[in-house]
Amino acid sequence: MEPAPLELKKHSKYFFIGSFLLIIVISAIIARPFISAVFGAIVLAYLFHPVYEFIFKRIKNETICAFIVSILVLIVFFIPILFVGNALFKEASNLFFAVRDFKIEDLSKNYIGYLNDFFGQNIDFSGLLNEALNRISIVLLQSVDNFIFDLPQKIISAFVMVFVMFYLFKDGKRLLFSVKEALPLKRKYKDDIAQKFNDTIYATMYGVVVTAIIQGIIGAIGFWIFDVSSPILWGGIMIILAMIPFVGAAFVWLPAALFKLGSGEATNGFGLLLYGLFVVSTIDNIVRPKIIGRRSKVHPALILIGALGGIKLFGLIGIIIGPLVLSILTVFFDIYLSEEYENA
Q: How confident is the model over 186-199, as pLDDT tens digits?
C-alpha cells in the first residue's frame, strides 16, 4: 500500500503543471489587447528611471516621485503626439483633396509624349495615373476611418500604459531584481543580458533621433532645391514625423510634391517626388540600422528585421521591442555556445 501516496504526489505535480500552463495561456489571452501598452510602459519606465532616481533623492517619497515622472512623460511624449496627430489629420485631409482635385490634364502633354517616345508605344499614362490617384484616395480614406474607429482602444491603451508605468516607477527596481534572481543562469550571463537590454534600448532611441534629424536636414535641402517655401520649417516638421513609424517624412514631402504637380510645376513636382521616394524615405532604412547596430553591437540586418517586424507586431513601440528581442536572442545564443564549449 506504500506506492499510493507516491502516485498521488505524481498526479498532483502534473495537475499543478497543467493548471499553471492553462493559467498562463488564459492570462496571455486576457492581456493580449494591451501587450503593446505594457511593453511601452516598460520601455518608458526604463528610459526615465534616471529621472525618477534624481527626483527621489530630493523628495524621498516613491508615490509622489512616480506621479511626477509619469506626468513628465505625458508632457514629453503624449502631448506632442496629440499635436502631431492633429497636424497629421490636417495633412491627410489636404493630401486627399489635393489628390481628388488633381487633374492629369494640368500636366504638360509633352511629358506624356516623352514617356510614349521612351517606351516606343502608345500607353495610356493618363489613365494609369488617374487609377493610381484614385487608389491613393481610397487608402487615405480607409486610414482615416481606421484611425477614428480605433481611437477608443488607443485611449484605453494609453491609460493602461501610464497606469503600468506609474507602478513600474514605484516597484520596478524590486521587480527587476526578482526577475533577475529568478533566471536559472550564472551571474555573468544575467549581467550580460541586463547590459544588452540597456545598450539596445538607448542605442535604438539614439538611432531613431539621429536618423530623424538626418532625414529632416536632407528633406529641407530637397525643398530648397525644388523651390518649396519655408524649407527649414518643413524640415523641422519632418524631423518630428520621422520619429513616428508608419508616418515618417512622407507626410510632408508627398503633399508638397502633389501640390507642385497640381500647380503645373511638373519639373519640381516630379523631382521632389523622386527625391522624397529614393532619398528622404530610403535613407531611414539604411542609416538607422547602422547607427543602432554600431552602438548596440548587433548586426544591422537584425536591427532592420527587428524594427520592421516589431512595428508590425507591437505598433509604434515595436521599433524598440523588435531589435531588443533579437539582440537578447544573440546573447542567449552566445550563452549556449559558451556552455557547449565548456562542456566539450
A: 888 888 888 888 88
